[in-house]
What does this fold into?
Amino acid sequence: MDRYQKFASSGLGRQLVRRLGLPNPHPLRRDAALATPVLVGGASRLSFLKQLETGSAPHGALVFDASDISSVSDLRQLHDFFHPVITQLGPCGRVIVIGRSPDSVAQRALEGFVRSVGKELRRGGTANLVYVADGAEDGVESTLRFLLSGRSAYVSGQVITVSAASPTGTLEGKVALVTGASRGIGEAIATALGRDGAHVICLDVPAAGEDLSKVANAVGGSALQLDITGDPARLTSYLLERHGGVDVVVHNAGITRDKTLARMDSSLWDSVLEVNLACQERINTALLEGDVLRAGGRIVGVSSIAGIAGNVGQTNYATSKAGVIGMVNSLAPVLAARGATINAVAPGFIETKMTAAVPLMTREVGRRMNSLSQGGLPVDVAETVAWFASPGSGGVNGNVVRVCGQMLLGA
It folds into this structure.
């Protein structure tokens, strides 16, 4: 429970926050509705932008298509559009900049602009950049709907690449596998995918069987008690025999065994690398070599901010989570050739039973050191996974999206 956020929203708390310049976490909107009205500027090369509800201030979202920016002088267009209206953005507002390719000087400059805007926004606002490759214009709707909705509440300062066109559709009738599904983030992911129509196979170790069954029953899915560090043939055989294959695989299972490197024995190192990385590699290989992942399939890894910025006492964990990012980078072209995708989420401070056990001061630093001045929820990670898993996200491949409220330090 975030008692500080509750206090900061009280009458006395609001006064102290203003006077002392303390962090001021605004309640986040997490529903599926798009932020409206939308003010659109720039090239407007995307037909989806013309479908958005427009209107007068306060604006729910500011969207600028910077695809035509090709020189440093063209970057003035950002100032000309945003300067008069940025203060007219409503609570939990959305800023989205659309680019074409980060290969040019001017287009790469968009990243610094968006990340800085994200740190200037208040009242739960977020800012993100979407690079849309030439020919991929019809694959961007899923991404823009996600970023404009409350489902992206804890995603800010991110750069997303849409590299191909994509069909629309839902997860209705699809089969999704979620590892580590008995509680926390895994449970939230299973719930989101089940809500979107998938039959969810909830997997966890036998020791978590009771909780696993409750989750599977709640989402109308199946429970599979299995240790993923074993032979992946057991898993692939199950998927083929029971379901004829799988459409979505979410590698959520993971463990921590924290010690500083000087105090970490080899067993602590080996166990974390095995569960968090090595077994995922083996499962992916088995899925692809056995044609278990169906056409249009989705693989989603769960990395961590620790894998990007590092963390004291987590050399093993950070190594494994950086490896997940490497797995995304190496497999993205392989999956693309099959008409499939692989992406990863990198959560920051998420309110779970594990983080609730963190010492108070460490926990408060984790909560406040981001642009939204608060911790995220398991549903924030789950909604990002559900966006990756959507049939409409076929053009989103090889991305690592941080679900961290835009951490201020280290990443």
Q: What stands out?
A: The chain has a mean pLDDT of 94. Residues 51 and 126 are 21 Å apart (CA to CA). Residues 175-403 form a domain with the Rossmann fold fold (CATH 3.40.50.720).
